[in-house]
Structure formats: C-alpha cells, structure tokens
Amino acid sequence: MMRNAANLWRWIWVLNAGLLIVFAKPLYADSDDSLKAQNIELKKKLAEFQTELREMHQRMEALEARVNGSAAKGASAQSAVSANPAASEHSGPPPGVTPAGEPLPASPPAGITLGSAVKKLMPGPVTGPTSLAPAYANAEPGGQGVIVPGLEGVSKTFIPDIGAVGDFTFRQSDIRRGDARYNPADDKFQPRDTQLIFFSPIDPYTTAQISIDKPNNGPFNIEEAFLTFNKLPYDLSLRAGQFRPAFGLLNETDTFQLPMVNRPNALAFYIGDDGLIEPGLNVKGYIPNPWDLALKADFNFVSGINQTAFDRHQGRTYDFAYIGTLDYSRDLFTTGALTTGASFAGGPGPGGATYMEDPFIQLRYAPTQRQVWTWNLEALLSERTGANDHGVKRGIYTLLDYNFRLRWHAGALIDVADVPGVPRGTELGLSPILTYFVSDNTRLRLQYTHTTATQAANGPLRAADVVYLQATFSLGNLKPLD
Amino acid sequence: MQIPVAKILSTIAIVLTLVSRSDAASLRVVTTTTDLASLVTTVGGDKVEVEALVPGGFNADFYQPRPSDLFKVHRAKLFMQIGLGLEEWSRDLVNEANNSELVKAQVSVGIPLMDVPKGRVDYSFGDIHPYGNPHYQLDPEAGRIMAKNVFNALSYTDPADKDYFAGNLKTFDERLTAAEKKWDAEMAPFAGSAIIPYHESWSYFARAYKLMIPTTIENKPGFAPSPSRVQEVIGIAKKEKVRAIVTEPYYDISIAQLIATEAGVPCLNLTIDVGGTSEQKDYISMIDYVVSQFVKAFSGHGN
Q1: Mean pLDDT of A412-439
Q2: Angle A155-A284-A211 (CA atoms, 0-180°, nearest 5)?
Q3: Nearest by CB: B12 against A153, A231, A297
Q4: Which residues make beta-bridge pairs with A461?
Q5: What gap in Å lies between CA A284 and CA A427, rounded to an integer?
Q6: Given an 8 Å threshold on Cβ–Cβ distance, is A112 in contact with B109?
Q7: Are residues B194 and B93 in the same domain?
Q8: Which domain holds residue A131?
Q9: Stretch A408-423: mean pLDDT, rounded?
Q10: For residue A422, is pLDDT > 70?
Q11: Could A235 and B99 be called an inter-chain contact, meaning their C-beta atoms sit closer than 8 Å?
C-alpha cells in the first residue's frame, strides 16, 4: 500500500517534470519576445517623452529669461522708487492705476492675493467642446466654468452682468362693489413685477443693457434694450434703443425702485403707472461753464409710444415726441445736496398734441449717516390740444423721507392731481410709509393711503383707504433698491 | 403752453459753443475718503486740488453718492479709491460721470491684506468683502504704502511734478516714522489686550499694536446683532477679559454701550477717518487721535 503510494507520487513528479520540459521553453520564448516588444515600445515612448521634455525645457528657459528680464527691470524700478521716488521711470501705469479711457477694473489690482474662495469663482475651464481649449473639452458640467455674477471684482469672461428683481405686493382696500375702481383682483397678493437684467460692454466704445420684464397682468416683454456710446466728443453720451428717458425726478426709476409703492398720481395720471419708456435716441452731457456749476442737459428724440402721455396713432406718421431735462445740482452744508431743474416733453396726442412741463427740486440733509432727510417736490403740467382738450391739468406731489436708523425709513407723501378726462375733479392722496431694508438686496414696506372723494370720467368716486405691503428683492446691483 | 424747444436747444448749443471747458491750473483729484484726500494733499501739496466724496465721520461702505458727486468726477483728472469692494457705488459713479480723461487708481496695492475669505462666498455671509478687509488705513504701515501709491498715481497723471511729489512723500515718510515710534511706545504696555469691535474695522489696528479680537459684535458683517448674539458677546467679553468695546458713530452705539456696561469695560465710540473730529485734521493726527483714545481707555481714563 505504502509502496503503491510512493510510486504514485513518483509518477506525478515525473509527469510534472515532463510537462515543465515540454512547456517551459515555449513559455520562456513568448515572454522574451513580449518583453522585447515592451522594451522597444518603452524606448520609443521615452524618446518621444525626451523630445517633448526637451521642448518644454527650452520653452521654460525662454519664459524664465523673459520673467527674469521683467523682474530685473521691475526690481530696479522698485528700488529706485524706494531710494528716490522721483528717479523712477515707467513706460506704463504703476500698479493699481487705470489710465484714462479704460473702465474701472473689475478685478483687483496687481499685488492683491485672492482668497481661495474667490479663486474658486474665477472663470475656469469651459464646458463643452472648443477648438481653443481642447484640454477643457471633457471638463465636468457644473464645474469651475460656473461664474457667479454680480460679485464685484470677479472677472467674467465675456459673460454679462446679470440682475434679477422680484416685486411682490399685497393690497387691502375699502373700495366696494359699485365704485368705478372696484376690482376684487387688486386686493390680493400679487407678483407685481419680475425682471431679468443683462448689462455688458460690447466693444471698447459701447455698452448694452436689456431688461426682460414679466408684469403681473401681462406676458414677458422687453422693457428696456439700449446701447450706450460713452466715447463721444465733449464727453457726451448717446443712447439708442428703448429706455427710460430722464423726465422729472422719478422717471428713470423703475416702479419697484420708487420710494413709495406706486408712482404718485400727480405723474401716473399723465405718464402712466410705469412712467415713460420710449424707443428712440438720447443724448446727455454736462454744460461747460466758467463758474463750474453742475449743469446737466438731457435730450431725447423718441417715438412717443406711451399711450397715457402721447398717442402716436393719432399723429402724422412723421410725428415724433421729444423729452428734455435741464438740471443743476450742488452740495448743501457738509453732507447735504440740492438738485433742481425742469423737464419738458411734447408729442402727438389724441387728435392733436400733448405738451408737458415738469419742474422739480430735491433736498437732502444728512447731519449724520444714520439720519438722512430727503425732500422731493415735483409738479407736472399737461396740456392736450384736440379731442380731449380740458385745458391745463396739474399734478403735484411732495415726499419727505427720513432715514432715521440704519436700514429704516419713514416717509410722508402728499399727492394731488387733477383727474384726466373730466373738466373738474382733483384727487388728494395722503400716505405714511414705513420701509425697512433687510439688506442692500431686500426691502420690506408698509404703506397706508387715504384718497379723498373726487369726480372721474365714469362717475363720482368715494373716499378710499388702502393698505399696501410690499416685499422686493434685487440681485446683481444693476437696478439697486436704494 | 407750447414749449419753445427750439429756443431752449439753441440757447444750450450757444452755451456749449461759446463757453470752453474751464481747466484749472492744478491737478484736480477726487478721492472717495477723507483719509485718501489727506494723503493726496500731503503728497500733492499745492499742485493738486482735492475733493473727498464721503464726508469725515461717514462710512464709505454704505455711502449714497450725491448728484453733485457726478459732476466732481466729471471734471476731475484723477479718481482715487480704497478699493477691495469698499466703494461699490464708485463704478456706477465713474461710468455715469462720463469723463474720458479720468485716471483711476486704487491704493490697496501692496498692502498685506487680512480677513480674505476662504471657501465659498455668497450674500448669506452678509456684507462680506471678497478680496479682504478694506479698513487697512488704521495700520500706519499701510498708510505708508497708501502714500506711496498716491505718489505713483500723481506722478503718472502729472509727470512734470514728480520731483515735487517725491519730496513731499519723503517728508511724510519721515513724519510718519517719528509718529510711529511714539505710538508704538504708547501702545506697547497694552500688547495682548483684547477688544471687541462692532464691525471688522479694527483688524489692521489690532495687528499693528498686537491687540486681540476674540469676536465682533456683528455676527455677520453689515447686520445688526440679534438679542441672543448680544448676550453671547457679553459672555465672550467677560470670559476673554476684554479691555474695551469699540464702535464707530454710524453703528448702533446703544448695543456697544450695553455690552460694555454688562462686561464692565469702557466703550470707545471712535471716528476712524480724517475730519471725523476736529482733532483728526490729517492722516497722522487721525491715527494719533485713535491711539490716544485707546491709551486713555486702557489706562482707566476712558469713557
């Protein structure tokens, strides 16, 4: 039994040895060829890598030579400034200085070290294929190519500044059924206005801005779209497109930016709730004078599409509207300011023409930064010749705003306006207003308005009491709240 | 009531044609802050005409430009600012002023910055400055670099007077060095003392004089603290044995005073810019005033 087992083991050993002899040589031979092939491949790759390395080395040396040359120049200039600043000579602007004609830099000046947070926000690889940056073509979506807009100083390669606005109101009134103003839809929460705003320089001489607006009772529309040319002779500025022309104190202010919930009736009755927004041309500039007075002139040649103010369909095809403003401003006391001026407008009206004048004054007094008084007084005189001629209609409002604590404003608005479309009838509105800025981007407002009884085109109107709550945000600083 | 548009326009045109732009002989400089205006006056001497937009005692961070500021920038030759996002309003101002000859300069170049945020930055962090703390003017060594940057900007804009500016810079440098020796000696006994400021305005001052800042009253920059935060700060003030609560006039002084009273330490309400008080006539006297108030408070003679 034991001998049989020993024989079995012997046979197994012999078989193994035979197998080793039979198969060992071919296996060795295959391994040798494979290694040789690998060796050749590696040598080939090494040669390629060495060639690439040599090229990289040469490029690196060339770059180092250039850097050292610049550094040597910079170091010598720097030491010269340190030793004797007057001795320094430079061909370009020193660090931090932006020459005339160039915009204020968006990125921090040289010498400032960015934190990793900001570095993360710097534009990185673009997503998607590009012939310019093949190495970035496989970048992860949502990676470093994402740019955060509106953060001042973060460079945004060819991406426009973006702003977003939301204006939400709640209204509760005692206007009841039977009153011409009665509309149950008004006394509800309303997303009154939502906007997206884009702004960017489009070449060294021109900037462009577009506002896409979604009002509560209407579809998306382009509220503003205009080009601005700032490099004109005499430092004039030219705008072309659809925009808010300067007219009085508030017309350049969007409705959600107003210091009250709604545009005062003194203006809204004659230029509409949203003010004048017109397609056309605008030119503005300072009027040079030997007394260094801050005199500014603004002239607009526009289509006159505002249905409340003008009526281009009633005019002749070549009738346009014009809107002009002349204003003067100066400092008052140490920290206050005065602005005064007048606007005028003319254009086609229903069956004739519309002419408007708008004198205004604004006083600001700020004994401290926590106590700022602002007083606005603005009047509007409107005359229509033709079908709806009821003589000169007048509106006037005054607003006293007191910024009594950081972020807190209390205001009082008195708003008197002749009602359009009737021979007689004047509406008086009184409104206390309380505004709180949660931050620079968010604003809450409470306003109560009492209006007296008056006569309107569709019958007598009762006195009314209305309470408004308003919540507004504006991101991106393109249309700031304050 | 037809408006005589043609007459108005022709009057404007005549004025534009006949009256040439009045160019002053001296270099017109507009600065955002009074500290910068003081340094420009010191280095520029009688070769410059300087206007600061933000009045002394006001915070440049939430300054609202006046309509007349547009005109000041419009007629200036050089516009200088602190930078680092302190004057976010300045970009619109410069754009609207439409001055094609305006040279713009930031004086933060070369200053070792503090409080540069790390990690993600967004509006939930409050009124944060993404490039770092811009209140560097309270460090006298930063003031020296600011003056050098002012010299660079003036020399670039008006190369003919470079030697004159260099002489003034040298004089300022010497005066600042002498003042620094005095301030160092006065503040040396208080090195290591802890203070709690309302806002992050005192980081550079604390670095210069080796003071400790365990926290600020504001939990998030630019936002008033909640009642629970006030209680928390009182606790920190007691635990860290702070020697003063420090605020500026435009913050809620009553909160700072409450914390100081609860912690049993003086409350310093200090203006940190030229023109803030009658004693702060220029950059050096501004720092001198601030140092003297700290010395008084730490010595037990403060308010």
Answers
A1: 92
A2: 50
A3: A297
A4: A454
A5: 35
A6: yes
A7: no
A8: 115-148
A9: 92
A10: yes
A11: yes
More confidently predicted of A83 and B38:
B38
State the DSSP string of A137-180.
TTPPTTSTT---TT-TT---TTPPEEEEEEEEEEEEE---TTST
Nearest to B21 among A115, A288, A406 (CB): A288
Nearest chain B Cα distance for residue A150, angstroms: 10
Tokens 């005409």 sit at which residue?
B49
Give me the pLDDT at residue B296, please. Answer: 94
Give chain B positions within 8 Å (CB) of A110: 109
For residue A44, being part of any structural domain is answered with no
Distance CA B255, CA B302 (A): 18
Are both A311 and A253 inside the same structural domain?
yes
Among B181, B215, B247, the domain boundary falls at B181
Residue B105: which of A98, A118, A330 has the nearest Cβ? A98
Quote the tokens at residue A94: 């020193």
Question: How do residues B197-241 score in pLDDT, each as one tens digit?
Answer: 999 999 999 999 999 999 999 988 888 899 999 999 999 999 999
Q: What is the ipTM of this complex?
A: 0.81
Q: Which residues of B touch A322 (CB under 8 A)?
A: 5
In a domain, B70, yes or no: yes
- For the entire predicted model, the pTM comes to 0.75
Residues 6 or more apart whose CB falls under 8 angstroms from that of A426 comprise A416, A417, A418, A419, A454
Residue B182 in contact with residue B160, Cβ under 8 Å? no
Where residue A424 sits, what CATH number does that domain have? 2.40.160.10
Q: From chain A, pick out residues whose CB is under 8 angstroms from the CB of B249.
A: 368-370
Size of chain A, expressed as the number of residues it contains? 482
Q: What digits encode the pLDDT tens for the residues B231-289?
A: 999 999 999 999 999 999 989 899 999 999 999 999 999 999 999 999 999 999 999 99
* A374: nearest CA partner in chain B: B66
pLDDT recorded at residue A249:
96
Could you give the number of structural domains in chain A? 2
Which chain A residues touch B123 with a CB distance below 8 Å? 439, 441, 475
pLDDT digits (tens, 9 = 90+) for A344-370: 999 987 778 889 999 999 999 988 887
